[in-house]
Amino acid sequence: MTDLTTNTSAHATEGEARFGDYIQLLKPRVMSLVVFTALVGLLVAPVRVDPMIGFTAILFIALGAGASGALNMWYDADIDRVMRRTARRPVPAGKVAPGEALSLGLWLSAISVAMLGLATNWMAAGLLAFTIFFYAVVYTIWLKRATPQNIVIGGAAGAFPPMVGWVAATGSVSLEAVLMFGLIFMWTPPHFWALALFMKADYHEAKVPMLTVTHGRPETRRQILIYTVLLAPVALGLALTSIAGPVYLAAAIVLNAIFLKGAWDIWRRDEAVAEADGYAVEKRVFRFSLYYLFLHFGALLADAGLRVWGIV
Amino acid sequence: MPITQTHELHKRRFGRNLGVALSLVGFAAIVFGLTVAKIRQGSLMEGFDHQPRVSVTPPVERDQ
Known about the structure:
The complex is a heterodimer of chains A (312) and B (64). Chain A is mostly helical and 312 residues long. Chain A folds into two domains: 1-172, Tetracycline Repressor, domain 2 (Orthogonal Bundle); 174-312.
């Protein structure tokens, strides 16, 4: 038995993925948002959670989100190939075979749900399983290619993590959890449509029925304003619950005022003006929308800290 | 004949194997840590094994 090296020249195919390619399948940037919002949901709950159990819960909520990302990349490889923003993802780039992405997604889904159930409770695990199902099946397979409301309903998948974190701590759903869900749910459409306004060519070429393609840009601008107006009472309503305090109230007032002003500015513009300045306002509102969500949840965390230290 | 040349493919495979190994070690560590945390909380250390045992049956009221 002389030679194992005979294999070295053979088939250095694109299918031989690096470990990092599998990490990319889990959409680490989306996972970071999931980790943060789920952590806030878990920490603001009025129940003390053992740090190890809390850490495990957040880890497997994040892994569940990653699993749904892998399932999304498996199914969407054909449209990812067309869009500039997504063409370098592992499956369309040929680094990971579609079957590998599918089996990674399914296995990680099963592991994350089982481990969350064992670590915390089966209600949280069931909610995580539903979240994965919602993102992978309802959004990715069903709605994304079928309706321009894809973002609205699909946004629910991204809105579940703080609720899962809350249920992991308390074992039940309550008004606070529903409002945290509502905050992300209502925030998603204006956030994504602002992006769609200045990334127009991509969605059009991929034939994804984004609102900008099906109903036109003026309508998209109007919808951004409508959803931002509907978002404000949800954000301010959360300020009236037991988990919010002065920091959240102040943050919600200021952030919603700025977001409303941005949505108003987008609505008042037309395409000629937007193209003339390179979609400056749309890009500014999109960037701000990221801070908007981060700061709302950060404020909830700050108020929880103030309560723990007995300041409020 | 020993393997003297490593192909770029080998590096990729090594990285992948290392990643899987570290993930498995991490998973084992998490399960261990979780077990310790659960036991500290007072969770049952014995499961039901088709044979009633005093240690896993609920306490019975004595005064009747």
